[in-house]
Structures are given as structure tokens and as C-alpha cells.
Specification:
mainly alpha, about 65% helix, 8 helices, about 0% strand
């Protein structure tokens, strides 16, 4: 188990959203405020890590023919727990995210990691895979939230800063008047535009690093 390699893959080289292109529907839908991004990101991180551990523990006794059904059952159990906890302790977040919390049950990131990684690896590696893949997903959400909120509305940290009646009610820090913002970024199409730009940037960086690596290998071979 190489923790450093797993960390790098989760955040950069195998990022679930920007590289694997998974879980993009929720990513585009809820990234309108920092409050939503952090809440959704950590919800997925917790569920993904718990599911990874449980599926890894029972991987050897799961019949191959019904493994996907078992995966969904495990995921649904943890999603229900997280959903009820949010409703009880952070109702503003539960209301803001709405149906996207229950829809984590069919989130391709969680099912994909269960199928591609957890059923083939021990508990320790699966635990760290859940942590780092979840962090990679959360970082993308936060990045999109900051970009869309700042450029679209001229604010930062809506739902978190300048709260009036508890967390989730804050208006955020206003940096410039909202009428000067690119309001299109606050609309659903703004999610497509922002995510597309981030994916393009990630692909550019990865290809650039790959070319540098190939150039160094050629130099070493020539020597």
C-alpha cells in the first residue's frame, strides 16, 4: 500500500471528477455556494470511506452475481445515516442539497470505487482510497463553488459567513456588487462552463507533466 501514491491519485492524477469524469451531475447542480460544496463534499467523503471499508471487509464472501446489489445496499445504508444526521443537526444543509443527498446512493464515484478498487484490495488501502478520493471530490466542489459564487455574485462563503440564524443562513462576504458579476455562472449552464474549464485545465497540466517525464526519460536513455 503506497499512501503517497493514493493521495496523489485521489487529488490529481486520478481525480474522480476531473480525470475519471464521475459524479458530474451533482457537481454541477449544487456548486452555487461554498456551504453546499463543503457539505456535499464531506458527506460523500464520509459515505465513500465507510462503504470502502465495509465492502473490503466482506469482499471475499460476496457472491459475484449479486455484488452490485450488495454494493448498493451498503451504500444506501450509509447514505440514509448521513441524510438523517444532516436533517437532525444541519437542517439548512439538508434542505439546500435536497434530493442530491439521497441520490448519493447511485453516485458513480462510490459504486465505481467499490467495483474497481475495494473488492480487490484490503481494508487499509480501501480506507485511504475513500479518504483521498473523497478529498479530491471535495476540492473540486469547493473550487467550483468559489469560482461560481465570486465571479457570478461577487461574494464568498455564502451560508457560512455573516450568519444571522445559524449556519446556512449567512449572506457571505460581498467583494463587489452582484450586478457586476457574470450572472450566467450562477445558472445551471454556469456549472457546465466552470466544470469544463477545470477539466480542460487538469488535462493540460497532466499532459504537460507527461511530456516533461518523457523528455527526461529520453535524456537519460541518450546518456
Amino acid at each position: 500500500m503506497n499512501i503517497k501514491q493514493q493521495f496523489k491519485e485521489g487529488l490529481i492524477t486520478n481525480n474522480p471528477v476531473l480525470v475519471q469524469l464521475l459524479g458530474m451531475c451533482a457537481t454541477m447542480a449544487i456548486t452555487t455556494s461554498l456551504f453546499n460544496g463543503i457539505g456535499m463534499g464531506f458527506s460523500v467523503l464520509i459515505i465513500l470511506t465507510c462503504c470502502n471499508v465495509v465492502i473490503s471487509l466482506i469482499r471475499k464472501i460476496i457472491p459475484n452475481d449479486i455484488r452490485l446489489a450488495i454494493f448498493v445496499l451498503v451504500i444506501a445504508g450509509f447514505v440514509t445515516i448521513v441524510d438523517l444526521v444532516l436533517q437532525a443537526f444541519i437542517p439548512a444543509l439538508s434542505e439546500s442539497l435536497g434530493v442530491f443527498i439521497p441520490l448519493i446512493v447511485v453516485n458513480c464515484i462510490i459504486i465505481g470505487r467499490a467495483e474497481a478498487f475495494c473488492q480487490k484490495n484490503p481494508v487499509g488501502a480501501s480506507f485511504f482510497d475513500g479518504i483521498f478520493q473523497g478529498l479530491g471530490y471535495t476540492c473540486v466542489l469547493i473550487c467550483m463553488c468559489v469560482i461560481r459564487e465570486f465571479l457570478g455574485k461577487g461574494s464568498f462563503g455564502s451560508g457560512i459567513f455573516n450568519t444571522t440564524n445559524g449556519i446556512g443562513t449567512g449572506s457571505g462576504i460581498h467583494i463587489f456588487p452582484s450586478e457586476y458579476g457574470a450572472l450566467v455562472l450562477t445558472l445551471p449552464i454556469g456549472g457546465f462552463i466552470t466544470l469544463g474549464c477545470l477539466i480542460a485545465l487538469m488535462q493540460y497540466v497532466l499532459k504537460k507533466n507527461e511530456k516533461k517525464k518523457e523528455a527526461k526519460e529520453k535524456e537519460g536513455a541518450n546518456v
